[in-house]
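Work Package 3 (structural annotation) set out to generate three-dimensional models for the target panel prioritized at the project kickoff. During this period the team completed the workflow that converts sequence records into discrete structure tokens, so that structures can be stored uniformly alongside our sequence database. As a representative example, we reproduce one entry of 206 residues exactly as it appears in the project archive.
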Amino acid sequence: MMKNDYMFRIGRAVALTWGMAWMLAGPSALAGTGEHSLKELVGELEDVATEKADPVLESVAGEWAGKIKELGREARNNPEVEKYLESALQNILGDDAPAAMDALAKLGNLKVTDEQLGLVKEVVNLGGAFLTQENFAGLEGAESDVSRIVSALRKGDYMAAIEPLKAIAGRASLTDEQEQLVQTMLETYVPGAGQAKELLKKIPGF
């Protein structure tokens, strides 16, 4: 009986210690301690871009990585930001571009501080530029459109990316994944809910 009482007291003390640590440090204290932390994922992203020997992709990846790290620091007390950043990177590394773009779109819809808002927009735009270059650069005859999209998003001018995105969306040679990606990008960058689907309906073949 005494032994059971002693073990109970030990267990309660441990629980209280962890509870106090959680209250004092907050949820962010445990963020990024898993096997794939945000910092590690960013490093893997840059490695992948380098391995593909595409100067544009590597340049975008470097710029994007810097903004992701900056946003991670600025929003370290917002676990939702880290959640969607990690989701986007994990999906890119797992070759699921549409899911990566969807994660970026959800990141862009989060409520953040005024200071973080500009960084969020930059991360979403640069993420779109990266996904465009990675998934459409080899599309025959689309070099000009891809270049325009990447350039526009790097500058933060997503409106200038819409027309070339629509042009790529109208190509018959797209894979199912490419079609899904370009649709998700249009839904992300076209202002107003549902406008992207209406745009796609006007494109022959959709």
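The chain has one domain: 38-201.
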